[in-house]
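Problem: given the chain below (94 residues), write out its structure.
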Amino acid sequence: MMTQWSERAACRSTDPDDLFAKAPEQKKVKAVCSTCPVQIDCLAEALDNRLEFGVWGGMTERERRALLRRRPAVTSWRSVLEMARTEHERPRAG
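Solution.
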């Protein structure tokens, strides 16, 4: 069953096997993720559900594991990721 956000994903027409590529092919998948309108939704899904394999939201399984180790108390990644995006997009004073 597809979720609403996955229907808008940049990778929706990609061969699903490509999303489970090994390095260095993962860089190609991550490039698709970088322009995806639902990147945060995808990454939150992977982090919240501890998905072990594949590139999700622009992060490899190794990158997600490292993030989960650094922030073990996070129970809902969507709000954390949305807050990070807001901070990133905020104009810097200076």
